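Annex B, item 7. Sequence and structure tokens for protein A, then protein B.
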Amino acid sequence: MIQEEAYLETNPSARPARAFMTLCSEGDVSGVVEILQAIGEDPDEDDMEPAELLRWNDPLDGGKTALHVAVEKGQVEVVLLLLWLGSRANESAFPQEFLDAVRRMNVPRSLVGEGEDIRALKGEDTRSAVDVAREMESTWAGLSSAGLFDV
């Protein structure tokens, strides 16, 4: 906690990113959407863009991305949302129930703009979130077999 406060004291623009990581680890889908929309609609001068936030590597957590954290914590809905927003996965690979939910929530894939496919991003240990998911096969077999982890 002291390390985090010291980091945020010297890097205040990382506050939304740390909050985003927490929301992802806790499975707060609506919170994830709200923070991305808020930053996209009314950015502060020092704020990251939504695309940067989605692809941010947390220096306090081994360079993990939000996708890494959501995969490790077994947050299926958040993983689907992050893949929806930050990957090039085919829409047909997503479960229909999820697609219905993002449409109800009005979450277009364009919410975070363009950028590198988040499935390819690696942490400090050189593993991607896809690598982590493959190590947790029992948890992620369904999404993997649907092709959502194919980069």
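Protein B:
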Amino acid sequence: MSNEDFTVTVRKFLKQLGVTGHQVIEDELKKAVKNGKITSGSKISISAEITINDLDVTHKIDGSLVAPE
């Protein structure tokens, strides 16, 4: 596999991760606000983790979001 092909496969994975992750985050936060579990404008802690099992590698990021209206 060429370096360019490899880069394309990584970018496709990250695009899928970003699109589906965004959908899940947005849907769940809107549902939580609607159900009264959290209030609009509240700060929500969030983390994401990517694991490469075959290489025994894990990358985790932590952050925060503000709940939607």
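Comment on protein B: The longest helix spans residues 3-34.
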